[in-house]
Amino acid sequence: MMWVYGLTDAASLPDVDGVDGRPLELVRAGDVGAVVSRHDARPTEATTETLWAHERAVEAVAETAAVVPARFGTALAGDDAVASMVRRNREHVVALLELVRARVELSLRIGGERRADAEALHRALAGRAVRSTSPVLRDGTWTVAFLVERAAVPSFVDALAAVAPRPLPTLTGPWPPYSFVADEELAS
Amino acid sequence: MSAVSTFEAGRDVTLLDLLDRLLDKGVAISGDIVLSVAGVDLVYVGLRAVLLGIEGETR
Questions:
Q1: Contact status of B58 with chain A (Cβ, < 8 Å)
Q2: What are phi and psi of B40, to 5 degrees?
Q3: Is the dihedral of CA A62, A65, A69, A74 positive or negative?
Q4: What are phi and psi of A28, to 5 degrees?
Q5: Does the model's ipTM exceed the 0.90 cut?
Q6: pLDDT in tens, A91-140
Q7: Which of A89, A106, A117, A136 has the largest count of CB atoms under 10 Å?
Q8: Where are the beta strands (DSSP E) in A41-140?
Q9: Angle B11-24/A48-62 helices, nearest 10 degrees?
Q10: Interface residue B46 vs chain A (CB under 8 A)
C-alpha cells in the first residue's frame, strides 16, 4: 500500500521519514510525481505522531519544491496505481503546483463570539494574500485561511499586528496550502 | 518582536490547525482509496480525544 503525501515537481526528495518511520519515495510520471511511502499494511493507528509525520514530510519536500498536499488518509494500492494517478492528472497537478509554488498558508483564529472582528480582519488582510477563505465558525472559533507568498509572511504578520483587536487572535503557520486545494479532486 | 502570537502558538492550537488541515483539506484523490471517507471520520473522532487530552494536560 502506498501512503500519499502530496504531488510535486521535485526531482528528488529530502531524507525524511514518513508515517510509521517509512522512507519517502518519489513516484514520477514525466515532470510531476507523487510523494509516497510504502507499507505492508495500512497504518491502523492515526495518532498525533502519524499526523505530524505526514505534515513533516510535506513540509520537508516543500522546502525545495512546490507541493500540492494530499488529504490525510489517502492511500493507493501500489506503484502502478500511483503512477497512473499522476499521469492521468498531470495537467491539473501542474496548474495546482503553480497555485501553491513559493506560497504558504496562514491560519487565523479568533473567538467564536467575535464574528465582526473575524470579518474585519479578513477584509483588512485579504489584500495581502493571493487567496483567502471567508471566516468559518468551527470548534467554537472563527477561522480564516490566507494563501501568502512565503517571502511576504513577515509583512503579513506586521500588518496583522497593526490591526489586531484585543484579546489578540492566534495565527499559526506557515502551513502547506491545504485549504486552497481542498476543493480539488484527482481521479485515480 | 511582533505583538501577535505567531509560529509560537501553543501546541494545542497548532494541533487543532493541523487536524483541520490534514483531515478536511488537501487535495482529494478519488477511486482506489484504501482508507475510506468513513475510515477517516472514525480517525477524526479518535484524534479529537487525543486533542482534548493534550488540552487537559496544559490546564
A1: no
A2: -65, -40
A3: negative
A4: -100, 150
A5: no
A6: 999 999 999 999 999 999 888 999 999 999 999 999 999 999 999 998 78
A7: A106
A8: 67-69, 75-76, 103-111, 131-132, 136-138
A9: 80
A10: yes
